[in-house]
């Protein structure tokens, strides 16, 4: 059951519910922990070579990904291409 606001018209914010996170920071930490746990599952090619600390590896990968998302120029080797629909390739016949 989804909690509702006192008026009963809109879903209540789960961060303010007694059984949910009490602050946005707590919600963010829970989300980050879930993302890290998911990423800590090694990909097939990572499993082949192994990992001394999959949890730490996941944290580093996600931090790098976050930095690249927030600041696209953060990685010097990243090439960001922006193209319009008029610049698409011709379809193969």
UniProtKB/TrEMBL annotation:
Biased composition (Basic and acidic residues): 25-34
Region Disordered, residue ranges: 1-93
UniProt biased composition (Acidic residues): 53-64
Protein name, UniProt field: Uncharacterized protein
């Amino acid at each position: 059951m989804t909690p509702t606001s006192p008026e009963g018209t809109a879903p209540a914010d789960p961060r303010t519910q007694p059984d949910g996170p009490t602050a946005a920071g707590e919600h963010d930490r829970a989300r980050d922990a879930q993302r890290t746990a998911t990423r800590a599952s090694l990909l097939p090619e990572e499993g082949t070579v192994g990992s001394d600390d999959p949890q730490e590896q996941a944290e580093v990968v996600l931090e790098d990904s976050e930095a690249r998302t927030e600041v696209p120029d953060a990685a010097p080797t990243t090439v960001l291409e922006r193209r319009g629909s008029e610049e698409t390739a011709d379809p193969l016949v």
